[in-house]
Amino acid sequence: MGSGQERTPWEDWSPQGHRVHALCIGVSDYTVLDKLPNAEKDAKSIAQCVEESGRSKTQIVDNPVRRYDMTQGVKNFVSKVDKDRPPRIVLVFYAGHGMQHGDAIYMLPTNANPKTPELLKSQGMSHDELFRMLKKGINDKIQVGNVLYLVIFDSCRESLEGSEVVAGYSPEIHEPLSENRPEYWLLCTSTSRRAVAYDGNDGDLNSPFTQALMSVECGLFQPNVPLDQALKLICKRLDRLGEQKPGLMHAQNIPDSLCLHESRRERDTTEDKPFDVCLCYREGGPDSALAESLRDKIECCDVQLRGSEKRRLRVYLEAGPAPPAAKIQAANAIFGSTVILLLVSRDTLSDINTLQEDSQAKDWLGQLLWKYE
């Protein structure tokens, strides 16, 4: 995509892609450096938060052994981002050991033991390299102009032992290089230059920084909470604790209203806009991702109206915010849809009689599904 060609805002693009497409990297099992029991759990917890926010997609990379494995994980993620229907936000979360050298912050795989700047560059992956891969692999290949690239590091930023540290760095010195970064970018680090980020105490499920990211009070994954507001609250919360001082750097052109989790206030549940298809599936398991993918494909299809007019198919997948209550929305969708599509897989029938405590031992629907599965 040429830089001089005008591109379309995501909000005006049709059909739209996922709200968020996230890569979560967790590195715990270091062979030379100290192990970090919570880092892998942190990555999986953030991935779960993204998935639960709706209309989102995640990929996880656990314990990459070498720099090659880490870069391949990023390349694989970049290749899977839909270039025809890009997400509104591309999120990369990293939890693991990190080091700062000059103006670069490095992520470290499990076999890293960087004792010199040369070893650090050959064994680790810098935030500049990460932004460059996002720019070249996604942003330069899409026709949507305002995709945000959000990178979050839950890692230390200590300098190499014995290396010179230049005092008086401004926050801007950590910005990804201008030739490497997309137009809309945001970088949030769990601690400041030369400082340690804490993995958490024994028995903690997550690090203090990841706990703040997930907290309802800060609201990063809560519906309709502005991204900039949530991240600033997270930074203030950690700063008040006094153990680490997070950093936040971003382009100046990010809308104040941009949210990671945008709840659809206006959903097609009204009588004047009935659904065409009601997609029924078992929530909370592998069927959820399949149902979302199926919904996205169906919504790409057109309905022929009078004359040459067309519109997209309307698909009911899940209830929106109340009112009305979720059960009423579901009932209206079933009653008003032209087609009711029941998604059934082997996972659908797993422990079907234990879905509710009052399930009968011989559930006729379960038996019927088993018979024709």
What proportion strand?
15-25%
Number of H- or I-type helical stretches: 9
- Give average pLDDT, whole number: 82
What is the spatial order of strands in the main beta sheet?
A: 2-1-3-7-9-10
Unreliable stretches:
162-173, 265-272
What is the approximate shape? globular
Please report the distance between the alpha carbons of the first and last residues: 46 Å
Percentage of residues in helical conformation:
25-40%
Number of strands: 15
In N-to-C order, the SSE pattern is: EHEHEEEHEHEEEHHEEHEEEHEH
Rg over CA atoms? 23 Å
Please describe the biggest sheet, giving its number of strands, its sense, and whether it closes into a barrel: 6 strands, mixed
How are the secondary structure elements laid out?
Blueprint: E1 20-26, H1 37-52, E2 56-62, H2 67-80, E3 89-95, E4 98-101, E5 104-107, H3 117-123, E6 125-126, H4 127-137, E7 148-154, E8 158-159, E9 185-189, H5 208-214, H6 227-241, E10 247-250, E11 277-280, H7 286-298, E12 302-304, E13 310-312, E14 315-316, H8 326-336, E15 339-342, H9 364-372
Helix pairs in contact: 2-4, 5-6
